[in-house]
Amino acid sequence: EGDTGNSYASGDKKDLELPESQRELLEAVAGCGKPVVLCMLSGSSIDMQFAAEHVNAILQVWYPGARGGKAAADILFGSCSPSGKLPVTFYKDLEGFPAFEDYSMKGRTYRYLEREPLYPFGYGLTYGKVSVKEAAVVGEIKEGEAFEVSAVLENNGAYDTDEVLQAYIKDLESKYAVPNHSLCAFKRVALKKGETVQVTMQVPYEALMIVDEEGKKYVDSTRFALYVGISQPDARSISLTGQEPVKVDITL
């Protein structure tokens, strides 16, 4: 709604709500007393608070194209396991958010978010039950060179699945560091039910750098925390997945 010529608010959304007719339909279906799986086709973050409280599952389908229905059916009927991760944050609401023309990052995106999200960046469930059992930096970190991270993953679930291993870095010293943490590497891994695998990922040296007030990029710390898991290391992600990323201390 409201897309024609950016007809209001200079192209900003008035809110993150679904159109009224769709909200009414969702409420009516959810009130039937039957199990409901919501297949959400959208191109960005949507207010999903009602769905989170009243439906049994949510499948975020985005804009899937001509074969999207078949792909969604394969997931719904168990022919394959869902394994996608959110590339954006799904906020609970827009309370306290700055206006569209305010370009500051305060409170925006997972790196600067000050309030708990509904569904965090990097979150997504599968039909398996994958956890990261151990993780470590392989070898020495050398200036200007990517370094390797090793992790052991287990699928203790009853289904084969893909999972996305994710690594987040947090600068523990610099005043220019982002408030939370930053995604620095990820890798899709296929695991059979009951399988344990060891995988490695390359983390660019640039992930250790900050950007100062003058736009210069450099390493400004000697201590970092690296989190390796199937989600962010934030409390909401851990609550939703039931899995806590493995923390690796890094000292340069």
Q: In which range does the helix fraction lie?
A: 10-25%
Spatial strand sequence of the major β-sheet: 6-5-10-11
Query: What is the number of beta strands?
Result: 11
Instruction: Please indicate the count of domains.
Output: 2
The CATH superfamily label of the largest domain reads Immunoglobulins
Number of contiguous helices: 5
- Regions with little confidence, pLDDT below 50 for 5+ residues: none
| Mean pLDDT, all residues | 93
What would you say the CATH architecture of the largest domain is? Sandwich
The run of helices and strands is HEHEHHEEEEEEEEHE
> What does the radius of gyration come to?
20 Å
Note the main sheet: 4 strands, antiparallel
Overall shape: globular
Strand content is 25-35%
Q: What is the end-to-end distance?
A: 51 Å
Q: How is this structure best described in words?
A:
With 252 residues, the protein is α+β, with helices and mostly antiparallel strands. The protein folds into two domains: 109 residues, 3-Layer(aba) Sandwich (Rossmann fold), CATH 3.40.50.1700; 122 residues, Immunoglobulin-like (Sandwich). The protein is 15% helix and 29% strand. A four-stranded antiparallel beta sheet has the order 6-5-10-11, with no helix packed on it. Strands 3-4-7 form a three-stranded antiparallel beta sheet, with no helix packed on it. A two-stranded parallel sheet has the order 1-2. The protein is globular. The N and C termini lie far apart (51 Å).
